[in-house]
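Per-record layout

source: Dactylosporangium roseum
name: DUF6933 domain-containing protein
length: 158
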Amino acid sequence: MMIVRATKKLRDRIGAPDLHADEQSTTALGEWYATRFAWRPDVLLLVNETTLLPILLPLAPAATALPRAADRIAAIMAAYGADNELVAAEVEHMSNRRIAPTANRSVVGIMTEFTFLAERRKGRELDDLEAWLAGTPCSPLYRTHTTSKNAFRHRLAR
């Protein structure tokens, strides 16, 4: 099961929390945090809690945002060298999704920083902006200044 911990401004668009107290993420990458950029058109930002890897995609239509996010995550996993079995297993686990409120202030802080940085590069292609954000050093990662892209690759190598 994929757990998406969404900000209130995103939950207003994609739906109310539906995570039960005893449910936990079954994905290899763990939970994802999400918010929206109030751009024209709106953009969905997902950040992996473990690696802080950002994923960007158009929010509209909001009803299909999370299934499309799962497809994008799988594509990024494959691009970063995950083997086909791991990607297939992750896709299977992400087919069941739950929405919850945010719980980790550090990840929310990183989303705020990514939002600030993205605003300065607004108008670029989302893929380019996503790659640029993934190359930004994030100090909460393993108490170092590594990038989320490198942390993600390291996580996939396990």
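summary: Strands lie at 2-6, 32-37, 43-48, 54-58, 97-101. The chain is about 45% helix and 15% strand.
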